[in-house]
Amino acid sequence: MRPPLDRRDCSYIAVPLLVSAVAGMASELSPYPLRTDLVHAIEGGTVALFQPFVHPALTTFFVACYLLAYPAFLLWTYVALKRQQGRSRALDYVVTYTMTIVVSIPFFYFVPVGVTGYYLDAVQPVLYESTGPIQAFMLNVDTLQKALPSLHAGLAASASLHAPRGYERASWTVTGVVLASTLYLGIHWLTDLALGLGLAYASYRLTPTIRGTLARAGADPEPAPASGD
């Protein structure tokens, strides 16, 4: 039985992972002051409505969604697309995914925005202070100033926009739960989610153009099938 991912797949997946590392560095190296006040001026404390109370069971569920189900969902989308529609369609997803991160980098560098849990009194930083060993992990890997835009929103939406046939509704349901987790856990503002979704859609719409440009340059590693799908 052939493995779900081969060396070529891993090389494609490595590209957005490298770009993600660059995005993290852009946030860490940003010399600009936090502009959380601007986001707060836009939406106020509305996000507190999504954390009406904190309960251990709810926290466990949303932490599992945020840290475990989310990356599994992103990887599953690639594998399912490749099996159902071929590697070229999976590469469309990789292009959208990568572009969503690329267009987010200027925001992380020039307009750093803090998480809701450390700005609003009415929102607890659940992910960072109420989850035992996960607290230390998150405080080590999260810059706490990379909220705008939400990559969890953007990348989950990228997966849903490319959802394999027959899984569209389930895919968007997962994306909705991921978005809810970022609000409950005291991470993102509604503005973060809206911008992340918008950038994902723009990247999705640009993907055929990007693939076409690569094809004309002879640089597309997976030319789309002539018959279409």
Automatic annotation (TrEMBL):
Transmembrane region(s): 12-33, 53-78, 90-111, 177-202
GO cellular component: membrane
Inositolphosphotransferase Aur1/Ipt1 domain segment(s): 55-205
Keywords: Membrane, Transmembrane, Transmembrane helix
InterPro entries xrefs: Aur1/Ipt1 (IPR026841), PAP2/HPO_sf (IPR036938)
Record-given protein name: Phosphatase PAP2 family protein
Source organism of this protein record: Halorubellus litoreus
